[in-house]
Design a protein that fits this description.
Low-confidence stretches: none
Strand content: 15-25%
Order of helices and strands: EEEEHEEHEHEHHHHHEHEH
Helix content: 25-40%
Strand order of the largest sheet: 2-3-5-4-7-8-9-10
Number of strands: 10
Shape: globular
CATH architecture: 3-Layer(aba) Sandwich
CATH superfamily: Alpha/Beta hydrolase fold, catalytic domain
Structural class: alpha/beta
Radius of gyration: 18 Å
CATH topology: Rossmann fold
Largest sheet: 8 strands, mixed
Mean pLDDT: 95
Distance between the termini: 44 Å
CATH class: Alpha Beta
């Protein structure tokens, strides 16, 4: 299988390599793929596992990581295959909902991560919800940020417009441009470059292009049955859950947040972060980290 492994120098301005880790997972055809992750804070501290979405990588969580570790927590943030510093298969058909979920489940098991406070945003929702439903023995609580899961229809008209845009631009997509656009075009140039850093070649963007295609828009989509099963499982999640959305997301509205909170038995009323778009970790990461710290303390 052909892969792209992004050169390390592309990330020179992005983060501190001291907390960078790698491990290898079976690609499904007997070959090994390298997955990258950040692991910061005391090894024996309460563990916060943060899952990113489209078209980002663990760089999105840098503000939260610093806030969580200052409070004495351990913060772990992996990059999915096709994203960040992880290996990037170039075959479009390799990317499926099942494969993303399996790779994160195997990463968590291999790293021996338990007692998780699981932070989910964007595609981190469908992937992380599945981990929680299938492995409740290792997940203690959920933090749900701007995400959803298939309910029998497309997420929103704004999401359909985004999917159509990705189809038009295909491998010419620029992740940094997308993150900046949803942040009101307020991000510094070096931050925009940080989101583009993992993808120096068109073929390195296959995973980014494929994520919208993995969102079910009808019941006969290949991922629909599994997502509906996970959605039903969430309705039985009676452990602590914090639903915290931003107030300016065109894809996941305040109503979506309230619906999500009502769906999870362990959740209180939905809470909102002001002045942020879809990628609220980028714009309000320190504030969110403070809320997560309080949530862990309140439910510890």
């Amino acid at each position: 299988m052909q892969i792209v492994r992004t050169p390390d120098q592309r990330f020179a301005a992005c983060d501190d390599d001291a907390a960078l880790r790698y491990t290898e997972l079976d690609a499904g055809d007997g070959s090994a793929l390298r997955i990258a992750y950040r692991d910061e804070g005391p090894r024996d501290a309460p563990l916060v596992l943060m899952l990113h979405g489209e078209p980002t990588w663990s760089f999105l969580y840098r503000h939260m990581v610093s806030g969580l570790t200052r409070a004495g927590l351990r913060a772990v943030a992996p990059d999915y295959f096709g994203f960040g510093r992880s290996d990037k298969p170039t075959e479009r058909g390799w990317y499926t909902y099942d494969r993303h979920c399996e790779s994160i489940a195997r990463f968590v098991e291999g790293a021996g991560l338990t007692g998780l406070t699981l932070v989910l945003q964007d595609w981190g929702g469908p992937i992380g919800f599945r981990l929680a439903v299938e492995r409740p023995d290792i997940v203690d609580r959920l933090v749900v940020l701007n995400t959803g899961i298939f309910s029998g229809r497309p997420p929103s008209d704004a999401w359909l417009s985004f999917r159509d845009f990705v189809r038009r631009v295909d491998l010419d997509i620029r992740p940094g441009q997308l993150v900046n656009l949803t942040s009101g075009n307020t991000l510094p140039e070096d931050v925009v470059a940080g989101y583009d850093a993992p993808h120096p070649l068109p073929e390195s963007r296959v995973g980014v292009v494929m994520f919208p295609e993995l969102v079910p828009t009808s019941a006969d989509h290949p991922a629909a049955a599994a997502m509906l099963e996970v959605r039903d499982g969430i309705k039985r999640w009676d452990r602590p859950a914090l639903v915290l959305f931003s107030d300016g997301d065109p894809v996941f509205s305040k109503q979506a947040a309230e619906n999500m909170a009502a769906r999870i038995p362990g959740a209180g009323p939905a809470e909102f972060v002001e002045g942020a778009g879809h990628f609220l970790q980028e714009q309000r990461g320190r504030e969110i980290a403070e809320r997560v710290v309080r949530f862990v303390e309140e439910t510890g």
